[in-house]
Amino acid sequence: MSNQKLSLEGLNFLATKIDISNNILSITLNRPEKKNALNNVMMNELNYALAYAKQEREIRVVVIGAAGDIFCAGADLRRAKEESNVPKLENADDISFSLRRLHKPVICKIQGSVLAGALLIVTNSTHAIAVKEAKFSAPEIHRGLWPFMVMAGLFRVMPKRAGLDFIMRGQAIDSDKAEQWGLINQSVSADELEKTVSDLADELASLAPETMQLGLAAYEQQDALAFDEALPFLQEQIAQCFQGDDAKEGIAAFLEKRKPNWK
Q1: Residue 45 sits in a domain of what CATH number?
Q2: Which domain covers residue 121, as residue numbers?
């Protein structure tokens, strides 16, 4: 991604809807007539919105939801020619990298089933809340394909044998099983989804923003390190954290018995 200053002004998002309120950027997958399948336009808009969220200090949390009955049916195998005026970022990351390297909380608000490549979004977000009716599947094997890109995120949230069975047989699991296996954080009724996600987003947005970014960046980096390499690296991160404005304000607020005022 280039170092250009990103803006939302004058942009017409065709495959998604964007909203910013109370330090939270909400992205809504908005191709319900196509089961929110991921085409080039939607992927570009997602990448752009996430890059914008990373750039803007006032955005502390991202929520990804969807319109219609299906959260996302994976890649759109019927590539219609659509264009929006959302710029294509130079050297744009894969969506998995865009999510993991945002280093801000990302909540998937899952109102319907999640299939195939949509698991890239769910497994690489920090949180996922789903309605009880939602189903999750990686059906690629039934098409003679394999969810290669999904595996990187999937096996970082699901137990290996559970994940292997999930992709080897391509059978759908319900939200209770998805919660049990760590694919989602919580399964809720449809009428609880909005409030559950909103409360979580508000809570995360109220916490030390710079420390949150530092911590998530360290989490992402240490995830790829051997244990003997991770500990010295994390020791350096602790020292850096203590020097930050958030730590200074948090400690002062604790000693003064008041709520911290994050900048």
Answers
A1: 3.90.226.10
A2: 16-205
Same domain, 126 and 61: yes
Whether residue 103 sits in one domain with residue 229: no
Residues 27 and 29: their CA atoms lie apart, in Å, by: 7
Alpha-carbon distance of 106 to 98, in angstroms, equals 11
Same domain for 64 and 172: yes
Q: Are residues 108 and 41 in the same domain?
A: yes
Question: Which of 8-12, 65-69, 116-120, 229-233 has the lowest average pLDDT?
Answer: 8-12
Number of independent structural domains in the chain: 2
The residue assigned the tokens 């989490």 is 219
Taking only the tens place, the pLDDT of each residue in 188-199 is: 999 999 999 999
DSSP H or E run through 66: strand 61-66
Q: What is the pLDDT of residue 250?
A: 95
3-state secondary structure of 127: strand
pLDDT value, residue 83: 74
Closest CA relative to residue 5, chosen from 60, 41, 51: 51
pLDDT average, residue stretch 21-42: 94
For 3, list phi and psi in degrees, rounded to 5.
-90, 15
Whether residue 92 is found in the same domain as residue 185: yes
Please say if the pLDDT value at position 24 is more than 80.
Answer: yes
What pLDDT, on the 0 to 100 scale, is given for residue 89? Answer: 84
Torsion of CA 201, 205, 210, 211, to 10 degrees: -70
Residues 163 and 61 in one domain: yes
Distance (Å) of CA 186 to CA 69, 200, 226: 19, 11, 30
